[in-house]
Design goal:
Elements (H helix, E strand, L loop, with lengths): L3 E9 L4 H14 L3 E9 L6 E9 L12 E6 L2 H7 L3 E10 L6 H4 L9 H6 L4 E5 L1 H8 L5 H11 L5 H11 L5 H13 L7
Parallel strand pairs: 1-4, 4-5, 5-6
Antiparallel strand pairs: 1-3, 2-3
Helix pairs in contact: 1-6, 1-7, 5-6, 5-8, 6-8, 7-8
């Protein structure tokens, strides 16, 4: 029986969405799935909107995810969560960082950052998980580990054991950052800070 799952990772340039999708792809490939990963929208320079599609299953033809097709959206920033919400399927899961990052129109003073985005998401009737990934990443040892914290939160919603994910983190990040990223992943997976060992 064929099946397919669709995950979107959305954020802004510089947040590490591509590394997160690489780790996710490693996990899925290690479990024998056909996997397609595609960064198709946005610019990966700092501040631009970035979207990565990850599709996996028994056989995946196209890497593109259309509106209403995403089983899960992992959002690295509130505004990106709202922007890509129409892509979430009915009954899908939205996991979002509570962090706000000003897009270029806000930085240049042309626009204002919208207020109450989390309330808007809560009122949208979706299965929503919010996480202060920035605070957990800081506790893990680096604000740059927000992506791995969020990946931990995503992993909790999936059917693969934590050690499979931790192995993929270790294989994908530079060796000198492995311990810190493993800790960041665990914090996201547990939804709380963990003691350094």
């Amino acid at each position: 029986m064929s099946f397919q799952k669709n995950i979107m990772i959305v954020g802004v340039g510089g947040q590490g969405t591509l590394l997160a999708s690489r780790i996710l792809g490693e996990v899925l490939l290690s479990q024998g799935y056909d996997v397609k990963v595609s960064e198709v929208h946005g610019m990966s320079q700092r501040g631009g909107s970035v979207v990565t599609y990850v599709k996996y299953g028994s056989a995946v033809a196209s890497p593109i995810i259309d509106k209403g097709e995403a089983d899960v959206i992992l959002a690295f920033e509130q505004l990106e969560a709202v922007r890509w919400l129409p892509y979430l399927k009915l009954g899908g899961k939205l996991i979002t960082n509570t962090q706000r990052m000003n897009p270029m129109p806000v930085i240049t003073g042309v626009a204002e950052y919208p207020e109450d985005l989390l309330a808007l998401l809560e009122g949208a009737g979706v299965d929503l998980l919010t996480l202060d990934a920035l605070a957990l990443a800081e506790q893990a040892g680096s604000v740059k580990a927000v992506n791995v914290v969020l990946l931990g939160a995503l992993a909790r919603q999936m059917e693969f054991g934590e050690e499979i994910w931790q192995d993929a983190v270790s294989r994908t990040v530079k060796p000198q950052f492995a311990a810190m990223n493993r800790r960041a992943f665990e914090m996201g997976y547990r939804g709380q800070s963990v003691a350094a060992n």
